[in-house]
Amino acid sequence: MRNLDITTLRSFVAVADAGGVTRAAGFLHLTQSAVSMQLKRLEELLDVELLDRSGRTIALTASGEQLLTYARRMVALNDEVIGRLTDQAYEGEIILGVPHDIVYPVIPQVLKQFHVAFPRVRVRLVSSYTRALKEMFEKGECDLILTTEKMVGSGGEVLDDKPLRWIGAPGGAAWRQTPLKLAFGRLCTFRPHVVEALDLAGIPWEVMVETESDRTIEATVSADLAVHTMIEGTEPPHLERVEHGGALPDLPSQLINLYGAQSSKNVMHDSLADFLRRAFSKVESARLKIA
C-alpha cells in the first residue's frame, strides 16, 4: 500500500501555481533543493513524470494535470480537518509588496481590517517601485504585490484605473515656470509618460530633483520649487492638485494591478487579496459618485 504525503502534494501544487520551483520555494519558505527533492519523491512514489522539464519553463505532463486536481482537494481537505479539530487561531506571515505612491490611503485600512480578522498573522509590508516589486515576486520573495502600470501582465488582475494628476504646493506657482521644473524618483514608472506628454505639447522641461526618496520629492514640491505627478487620490494633504486650466497636458491613466491572488494558497492569503479588492472598489465607487 502506497500513501501520498500532504507535504509533497502541497509543494507540487505550489510549483504548478507559481510556474516554477524557484518561486514556489519562496512561497513555501523552503529551499529550492528541498522542493525539488519533494517533487522527485512524489514522482518516484507514483512512478510517473509529473513535470515536463524539456523546455525553458516547467510545464505539467498529462499525469501532472490529472494529479493536480486531486492534490488541490487533498491539501484543502487536510487544512480543513486540521482547522476544525485543533480550533487554533491562524498564524504565519504574508509578505505584501506595494508601490510607494499607493500606500495611502488604502493600505493602512486594509492592514487594520486584516489584523482584526487574523490577529496572529503578520503582514510584512514591502514598499518599493513597481519594477522592483515584480522582480521580487518572480523570485517568490512576495506573496502578493500591487503595481502601477499601463497594462496588466500575465497572472495579474486590474483593481482600479486612475488618471495621473499634476501635483504642486498649495497655491503654488511652480507650474507656471518655463522650463517646467520636475521632481521625480529615479525608478518612477510615470516619468517616461509625463515627459512624452510634455514633449508632444511642446512644453520645455527640466528635472529639478531626481532621487529615490519620496520625502525629498515632497519637500521640494512643498517648497514650490517643482511639480510632481501622482495617481489621482493618492496625494498627501500638504500637497494639492494643480488647477492649470489646460496649460499643462493631460496625463494618461495608470492601472493598479494585483499579482499573486490567482494562486489560492490558504484562507489568510485569499482573505488579504479580497480585502485589497474591496478597498480599491470602494475608492473607485467614491470617485464615481464625486464625478
**Spans of 5+ residues with little confidence (pLDDT < 50)?**
284-291
Number of strands: 11
Radius of gyration: 23 Å
Given helix and strand content, the structural type is alpha/beta
In DSSP terms (H or I, runs of 4 or more residues), the helix count works out at 9
Largest sheet: 7 strands, mixed
- SSE succession: HHHEEHEHEHEEEHEHEEEH
Spatial shape = elongated
Chain-wise SSE layout:
Blueprint: H1 6-18, H2 21-28, H3 32-46, E1 51-52, E2 59-60, H4 62-86, E3 92-99, H5 106-117, E4 121-128, H6 130-138, E5 144-149, E6 156-168, E7 180-185, H7 191-201, E8 205-211, H8 214-222, E9 228-231, E10 240-241, E11 253-259, H9 267-290
Parallel strand pairs: 3-4, 3-5, 7-8
Antiparallel strand pairs: 1-2, 5-11, 6-9, 6-10, 6-11
Q: How would you describe what is shown here?
A:
The protein is α/β, with parallel strands linked by helices and 291 residues long. Helix content is 43%, strand content 22%. It has 9 helices and 11 strands. It has helices spanning 6-18, 21-28, 32-46, 62-86, 106-117, 130-138, 191-201, 214-222, 267-290; strands at 51-52, 59-60, 92-99, 121-128, 144-149, 156-168, 180-185, 205-211, 228-231, 240-241, 253-259. The strands form 3 sheets. Strands 3, 4, 5, 6, 9, 10 and 11 form a 7-stranded mixed β-sheet that branches. A two-stranded antiparallel ribbon has the order 1-2. The radius of gyration is 23 Å and the shape is elongated.
